[in-house]
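2024-03-11 09:14:02 INFO queue: dequeued item CDGSH iron-sulfur domain-containing protein, len=68
2024-03-11 09:14:02 INFO validating residues
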Amino acid sequence: MTDEKVTMKVNDNGSIRVTGDVDLVDAVGGRFQVGSTFSLCRCGQSGIKPFCDGTHKKIGFESAPRAT
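2024-03-11 09:14:37 INFO prediction written
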């Protein structure tokens, strides 16, 4: 992993978009295969968790948090 800054964007009514060089690990330290850009599920209904598969669109997931 490099020292470059990673960006995580919380998309309105959708996923968390991760951009940058990051290691994504599970609870026991196993590494997920990821590229330099990928999306994480926020709706909890994805069939490929922790990644987004677009299910949020089908189920009408709504969430648009803003930083304060």
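2024-03-11 09:14:37 INFO annotate: Strands lie at 7-10, 16-19, 37-40.
2024-03-11 09:14:38 INFO item closed
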